[in-house]
Amino acid sequence: LALYFHSGEREEKCIIEDVPSDTLVIGNYKVQRWDIHKQDFLESAPGLGMFVTVTTPSAEVLLSKLYGPQGTFSFTSYLSGEHVICLQSNSTRFVSFAGSKLRIHLDIRVGEHFLDESVVQAKDKVNEVNFRLEHLIEQIQHISKEQNYEREREEKFRKTSEETNSNILWWAVVQTLILISIGIWQIKSLRDFFISKKLV
């Protein structure tokens, strides 16, 4: 997931990432500040930092740390579900200032372990093959874990759909019985009315 968004200084922006349990999540970000004179986003001034907060599906804070204007953060999920990742600048400037607009570039990688090419090149060919195989095995394990998580979500959704369909069916049956009862009552009332007026 790679994106960028605009934010005011001291304004908190959050994204939701659906993550399987026991999965490594790595985030890279870079902050740029709007320059009113050049009418463009420029590299941030030194001293501007970002508070990064990660909250689990059970509302527990998994990560809360101050980083610089550009950095990398990571965490490992222990619960499957929607994790909330929030970023907020630590600027002391007032939001009403014209230069308060920020652009935040964010790249989120779920379940990826970066392959360090410099380490690979430093090893001989046999070790290089082993290293690449280990990396591939990690990726396969992550894909398998992701598929299992999606399967669990699909099963939960299917159960919810089946329960909803069952409730709709019973409600339709109840409505039909009510309509039939009202129809019979109306026919009986009309019949009694006609008999009392000696029309039949």
UniProtKB/TrEMBL annotation:
A Pfam family (short name) is EMP24_GP25L
Localization annotation: Endoplasmic reticulum membrane; Membrane
**Membrane topology value:** Single-pass type I membrane protein
In terms of SMART domains, this protein maps to: EMP24_GP25L (SM01190)
Q: Which residues cross the membrane?
A: 168-187
Q: Which domain of life is it from?
A: Eukaryota
- The segment(s) forming the GOLD domain are 12-110
Q: Which UniProt keywords apply?
A: Endoplasmic reticulum, Membrane, Signal, Transmembrane, Transmembrane helix
Q: Where is the signal peptide?
A: none
Which Gene Ontology cellular component terms are annotated? endoplasmic reticulum membrane
State the similarity comment.
Answer: Belongs to the EMP24/GP25L family.
Q: This protein is called what?
A: TMD11 protein
Q: Which gene encodes it?
A: Tmed11
